[in-house]
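Q: Got a minute? One more chain.
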Amino acid sequence: MAANTNYQLSQEQIDHFMRYGYIILSNCFSQEKATEWAGDVWERLGMSPTDKSTWTDQFTHLEETKKEPVKTFAPKAWAAMCQLLGGEDRIAPESAYWNDSLIVNLGTPESEGTWPRPADLQGWHVDGDFFMHFLDSPEQALLVIPLFTDIQKGAGGTMICPEAAKFVAQHLYEHPEGVTPYMVPLGENKEVRRDLSFYLDIVKNCTDFHEMTGKVGDVVLLHPLMCHSKSVNSLRHLRVITNPPVALRSPFQFDRDDSSQYSIVEKKTLAMLGKDRLPGWTIKGKRETVVPERLKKKNAPRKTDL
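A: Always. Here it is, folded:
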């Protein structure tokens, strides 16, 4: 596949991101690249593609064995990421690489052929279980989902809820002191809530859901405050994605003197708040890392949320 580092988002794509908080880019990397990274997935899983009795784990997050610069692996996606975030110079250097830490969803015998309502899914959240959250947090600047298998409706594609993102944005705006990954404001008893109830309460009243389907080589780019959940693989087709993190060198800015310098992601955040600018807005808490619950349990497997 030829490099496409000069790729430019169309106005239609930008409008779609501003309305729904995501875009899906097609043909970002080749079938050959996908095979290079995911062709041995069954061997790595220790399962048989033709014997479902060996599919003992519904979700598996495989360890990294290789990595490559996004600019060469998926140049079109890298160009779009840079545009959404306001330029390559704003992206943290470590975010310029993807690896083959594959996320596999095989479904279960019990869920095969079932079609639950998206609002009833129990995994709704926003990414970033390792830091205190602020409206301008740089640690999670985009949610990125490269597809390493074709994913059709009902085959375990990540479920998103675009209308819920504005409630997350408003909550963060109202709490400049910072909140935990469970959205508990700083100063409140952090032990009170260590679950996803904040997100579940929002999503249960929503009606607009999108399942992230597509072809091998497609890449989904989503706003960092997008509520999403792993979904049921009703068809029990092999579903393989990754979820490479994207961070910024510096926090998002919502009080720029030159409005032309707002990134598309910043504009979307402001639009969700019904604002053009946040004069004088600043955080009032300390940026700090959090030890995720998944790492507090000895020998716990890596969390799989997609």
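A: The longest strand covers residues 22-25.
Q: Perfect, thanks.
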